[in-house]
Fold these 4 entries.
Entry 1:
Amino acid sequence: MIKNILLAFLYLLAGSQFLAAQADDSENPRQPRGKKAYFVCTSFPKGFKNPITVRTGKKIQQVELSKRSASDPIKLTASGIVEVVELKENPAEGEDPYQVIAKAVVKTTSKDSLIILSPAEAKKTGSTQVYSTSVQDLTKFKGGDYLYINLSPTEIVVKLGDKKLRVKPRSSKIYDAKNLKKAVNVATSYGYLDKGSKQWKLLSASTVVLRPTRREICVFGWNKKFNRVSYHGITFTEVVE
């Protein structure tokens, strides 16, 4: 009798633990457990389809992208391989039904990462790549920091408070806010090197608010229509524990 009561109690306890685990998993479905990655897209190419289709291992999922904020995170597999894919129109029997249009490999040592998608400049013969990718380890990009990505053909200079950063073409740099504890206003200006006159020219000047709960990304591009540097910001509010 006592044995049966004990077994029933253990059964109920196991069931409650299982339900609790389910509740924990569904409590915040946008925050998968384990190593994860977020997406940002610097600009949307012609014919861009949103949401994008992402493959990690055998899992296929949809990820909504925005030009102004980071996506919800995806859980990474042990390989760290992340592919952006599209369904082929008429795949042959036994063929992979998906065409890879972008691929990133995240270091397995990174807990949280940011995958930056940029429209590919020129396709190599036979290439299906629509985006080029770069990966930013988020442990090196903290709350209050700025990540500057220069996709323009000229050098960019950033003045943020008493700091000055020079960002070469096709490169990036991080402004380190040094473990910012509270919001602070900082004067900032952006300039670029004019290739014709070889002089630095002002792009914009303003005051920004650095917040410990946010990481900001500034993407510099090139406006072909007006033949000048362009830029836009992306806010990333997820804070690494």
Entry 2:
Amino acid sequence: MPRIVKTGWKLLYIVGAVVAIFLVNTLLRATPWVVAEVLGNAFFVLVFAVGTRSFRGRDEPLLPPRAWWRMTSRPTAGFVVASLFAVFTVTGVVFALTGLSAAHPAQAVSGLLFDGLIATAYAHSSVRLLRHPPATQKPLNKVRVRLR
């Protein structure tokens, strides 16, 4: 799997992912809502997982795969993403309880479940990174080789 290190490429991946998710969900509107919900969420998780496994921090080794629990290179990034999905979860609960959501109740529960799981995964990863910081690797452009 390719590693994405530069911020510009990460942003391009995120924009492309948002467009792809929108297109898939638009195409799935022609199917029964259960099929659309399952396939839409599966595609969302796939895109999210590929991004999580591909993105690397500047001080993170490129070749070995990340630990299964590790979602970001630094704890702060994980807390930001976890907070974002926690807000999605809370607003989803408020919309579902107040009737502002036009979604079927099962769709609302599904969205809340996925957003809550993603928030939990990122928060867990960040807490674990704070407790046990990984050994870092010098960026490739800053490595000096001494010849004798």
Entry 3:
Amino acid sequence: MIIIAFSEKTSKILPRIVCRKFKHVAPIICKGEYLVMLQFVRPGVIEKIKLNNRDLSVLAQFGWVFVYLPIELPNDFSTCNIWSCVGLAKRATAIHAPMIQTPDALYKMICN
């Protein structure tokens, strides 16, 4: 299972200007007993953050919205040549839609 986490807050300037509601997205991958959040920092730098279920409830209190997808991480998943948090989430979910460039558009596509 993959959890896609959407946030209304970010420290980056460009998403504050371009994006409407959701400004950041991060995929969370289930690995056995724990969860791993793949946090996009900048091109070429992806942080892996270990989480548990309590951490998800804390993130939800700070405005994160979670979408649970019953899919597995693709076998050819790689973090090379990813330029945005949306690109990371699209690659983790194997979505090939070039017009999806903002977290809002990704949220609308996944939820509809």
Entry 4:
Amino acid sequence: MSDNDKKRLSMYENVISFLQENRDIISLNRSFYYSLSKLRKMVDEIKIRDKELSSDTLEKTVKTYNAKDELILSLVSITAALYNFARERNDITLKEKTRISQSFFVRLRDVELINRASGIYQIASLNFNALQKYKVTKELMHDLKAKLDRFSSALDTKVNSFITGDAAVALSNSFNEAESIINNQLDKLVEQFDSVFPEFYDDYLMIRSMENIEEGEEEEMEMENYEQ
């Protein structure tokens, strides 16, 4: 769940608490209870959907890490062979490109690792015949390509799951439903008490606006409340 979604969820829960604390007012219109019950149900659903998304994301993240580790192990041996080849040929440029440790690969960002692995695979393919002297076989080359493709696919799946996965779509739909209840039902119900209970109305608007307050503003408000 993003920071913005966390703010929205917190606002929903604050709205529920506020209206429950003002039962004497909302009891004047029975529609409040129906809308409030629907919002509470959607808040519970959002929390369930978020757990499902977190679990789904964790599973895909683990697969991506495993695929990354396997790719790096394949890269190390072929990169070492390329470095020895470059050193024997006194190819300074290739030596610089292949003077790489395992820890260097580990520190690379995912996209950087894919680009670096693709480059090494291409160089090794062009010099395959010469690299056989350094125990680079067709099997090692096929293994590197397969692990590169597997890591790229796992990374794409992980990224897409944040946007198009079933759990992500369900969470987004739950938030949209909660927004609809707030905007089209509760806001209009509270507005009816604008002139009769102005303090109730103003307090409600303040709670509704909390999701739009930036972190710096929240800290400033907390300091102001503390000083008071």
